[in-house]
Amino acid sequence: METETDLPRPVAEELRDRAGAFVNSHVDLWVAVEGEETLVLAGDDARALFQAAADWLGEGSRHEVADLRWTRQPATPTQALRLRLVPPGTAAAVIPAPGGAVG
Q1: Cα 88 to the chain's mean position, in Å?
Q2: 64-72 β-sheet, strand order
Q3: 94, 67 in Cβ contact below 8 A?
Q4: How far is CA 51 from the centre of its chain?
Q5: Neighbouring C-beta atoms of residue 80, cutoff 10 Å
Q6: Which pLDDT score, from 0 to 100, does residue 56 have?
Q7: pLDDT mean by block of 10 residues, the chain; 103 residues
Q8: For residue 7, what pLDDT is reported?
Q9: pLDDT value of position 23
Q10: Are strands 38-43 and 64-72 parallel, antiparallel or unpaired?
Q11: Which of 95, 26, 38, 25 shows the shortest CA–CA distance to 71?
Q12: Are 83 and 19 in contact (CB under 8 A)?
C-alpha cells in the first residue's frame, strides 16, 4: 500500500523547496515559482540568468524542461527566464515534431 511519503510530490512544491536555498547562492537574482510547474529566474544580467538556469538543472533537478520563455521589461528586474519543468519522461509528450505536429 502506498503511503503519503511514497507519492510523488507536486512539481511546484519541490520547486519552492529548492528556490529558497538556491536564491541564497545567486544573490543578484530574483527566484520564484509560478503556477504548478514554472520556475522564474529574473535579473538584469542575461548571462547570470542562463548560468543560474544551468546551475539549477545541474544541481540535482529531477525535472525536465518542457518550455522556456524569455521576457524583458523596462523596470528592474529587466529580464526574466521562465522554465516550465515537468517530471521525467513527460517533456517529450509536449514537444512538437518537425512541421508542427505534436507527437
Answers
A1: 13
A2: 30-34, 38-43, 79-86, 64-72
A3: yes
A4: 13
A5: 18
A6: 93
A7: 60 89 89 94 95 91 90 95 90 62 51
A8: 59
A9: 87
A10: unpaired
A11: 38
A12: no
What are residue 80's DSSP bridge partners? Answer: 42, 71
The set of residues, in sequence order, having a beta carbon less than 8 Å from that of 15 and lying 6+ positions away, is 33, 37, 39, 85
Q: What is the pLDDT of residue 27?
A: 85
**For residue 74, what is its C-alpha cell?**
523596462
Label each residue of the chain as H, E or C: CCCCCCCCCCHHHHHHHHHHHHHHCCCCCEEEEECCCEEEEEECCHHHHHHHHHHHHHCCCCCEEEEEEEEECCCCCCEEEEEEEECCCCHHHHCECCCCCEC
Res 9: pLDDT: 76
Closest CA to 80 of 51, 47, 26, 42: 42
| C-alpha cell, 79 | 529580464
